[in-house]
Design goal:
Elements lengths: L3 E2 H8 L3 H9 L7 E2 L5 E3 L1 H15 L4 H8 L6 H38 L2 H4 L8 H12 L1 H11 L4 H20 L8 H18 L9 H13 L12 H19 L1
Antiparallel strand pairs: 1-3, 2-3
Helix pairs in contact: 7-8, 9-10, 10-12, 11-12
Length: 256
Amino acid sequence: MKKYTAKGLSKLAGVSVRTLHHYDHIGLLKPAIRTEAKYRLYGENELLKLQQILFFKELDFSLKEIIDILDNPGFDLIEALESHKQALVTKQGRISDMLRTIEKTVLNLKEKKMITDDELYDGFPKGKAKEIRGQAIEKYGIETIETSETYLKKLSKEQLRRLKDEQKEIFKTLFGISTKEPEDESVQLEIARHYKNVRRFWGTDGSVDSQWRAYKGLGDLYIADERFSMIDGKAQPEFALFLSKAMAHFAITQLK
């Protein structure tokens, strides 16, 4: 059987010569032969024992614990290998779970960074994002628009999609009850949902300022610009008027 010097075993097993010397010093791994020139030589038994040591270290056993285990007269190498195998399979499963979690986190972070201005203004005519953004700045001011955009760009694409879907669903519900009076309780309950949704779009849902003037002004915008109150791609001027009145009533009675 081939014998390995400390340097050769170090290279083979991926441990330092200094570590092998330390294992020898504490009685954990003695060389098979020590030559007259005091060179340490290791054989097959030492290779197998070093394998066991490294396995136990991988499982976070202390050197003292490893000595006690390997010195136990009842120590069974095959049983130990089977135990190591099962422990490593379990650890592999945990690592796989962690890798999947990391992949999801990285994907989520990438998605957050990938939201563009066009995506923020998705739903309006293609290529109109810059124009619409400019009009919004004229009406509400650059600070208000940047606050909204900063908040929205922190969302993932999925979160932004859900926020937009919620707004569409609220609009359709309101459209379905638009034959009622704007002050009707059922209408005002849905308008309250709309207000909360809008505040999230504005990035101010955590603010104590009710922004009642801005919300009422948004209702006026629905009348002035049909793009803001379309249902299934169709302009709804009567619905816009209904929305504006319902929002004005809510702003004055609930927010002012």
